[in-house]
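Checklist before submission:
- one chain only
- standard amino acids only
- sequence pasted in full

Submission:
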Amino acid sequence: MSTNFDENAIVLSKHLDTVEKRIKRELNKITSGGLSNVVTGITIDGVLQSGDASGVVALNLTDYAKKTDVAGAYYTKGSVSSFVDLPATGNTNGDVYNILTAGGTDRHGTTIGAGTNVVYVEDTETPANSGWDALGGFTDISGKVDKVTSAVSGNVAAWGANGVLVDSGHGFATDADIAAMLIANFGEETTSGGNG
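Returned file contents:
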């Protein structure tokens, strides 16, 4: 989910704040009238941040995400008991809730299962189309059959018409079965592999 993205954005933001503080601390140590090759200022992406432009160090951070670049991320708001318990007003684009109990449908008609995360999507062109979209959820497979409940030992299982595993009524072929089939179809026993 978006938690890792949010955590990474926070870590990056803290890192950039630490770098900025360290640079400012080092610049404050510089005395006026010092050596000619002393750093007197710093620019980030061409904008003077501190000091003067006479002995500036330029940093290009255009390849890094800034706080404003992650402004459209998901915002985890918590859990609600059911889809009907989602807030009807005061939502902003990217608000995310976890639905604890199955029921309801999102703005596109997707059925909401227990454990589904939904995000509020603000449609600025047609505000009436704003609403909740299902992001994903938990699929309950506890009612599914994971084994054949009645079958003859040695028979092959197959999917029945109703999506349940059933006994196919056919067993696995043994080596003797295959040899008999080859003799019946080709008139002689053949071997596989080797030199014949």
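Reviewer check: The longest strand covers residues 165-171.
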